[in-house]
């Protein structure tokens, strides 16, 4: 197999749109707290995809990014059919780990003015942080490829 490399430089931040689905909500139409975790994963894997790498390709190359820590601070409820913007930023790391910070914001809500939401700060639903550790197929810690390691400016 040829060496796995991105086709373009990997971004260190981005925003992914997510629509809150009915199956992610309770009977009152409020997004369940557990729904936020996959949204964070989608945002972080989309950063890879923009560089031309999929997580499936990483796995095929014997690299797995496991979540070592997750911290979410919920601010406000998300609601069924809200359009969200999930921002993800590489905030630190080392040769074997990546740290990300996230914000989950409402960008569109039926019956509400997005400008009013932003101006009042009511658009911020949650903030989060994750630490991912790179492991091989045998679950032993391994170094990240240089192109995936956190930039020097973000390393802790």
Q: H/E series, N to C?
A: EHHEEEHE
**What fraction of the residues are assigned to beta strands by DSSP?**
25-35%
Instruction: Supply the CATH class.
Output: Alpha Beta
**How many helices does DSSP assign?**
3
User: Going across the major beta sheet, what is the strand order?
Assistant: 1-3-4-5-2
Distance separating the two termini: 32 Å
CATH topology: Thiol Ester Dehydrase, Chain A
Mean pLDDT: 92
The structural domain count equals: 1
What is the structural class? Answer: alpha+beta
Shape: elongated
What does this entry show, briefly?
By secondary structure, the protein is α+β, with helices and mostly antiparallel strands.
What's the SSE blueprint?
Blueprint: E1 13-19, H1 36-50, H2 55-60, E2 64-74, E3 83-93, E4 97-108, H3 114-120, E5 124-135
Antiparallel strand pairs: 1-3, 2-5, 3-4, 4-5
Write up this protein.
It contains three helices and five strands; from the N terminus they run βααβββαβ. The chain has 156 residues and is an alpha+beta fold. It has a single domain, classed as Thiol Ester Dehydrase, Chain A (Roll). Strands 1-3-4-5-2 form a five-stranded antiparallel sheet. A hairpin with a 3-residue loop joins strand 3 and strand 4. The model has no long low-confidence stretch (mean pLDDT 92).
Task: Kindly list the characteristics that best describe this protein.
156 residues; alpha+beta; Thiol Ester Dehydrase, Chain A; 3 helices; 5 strands; elongated
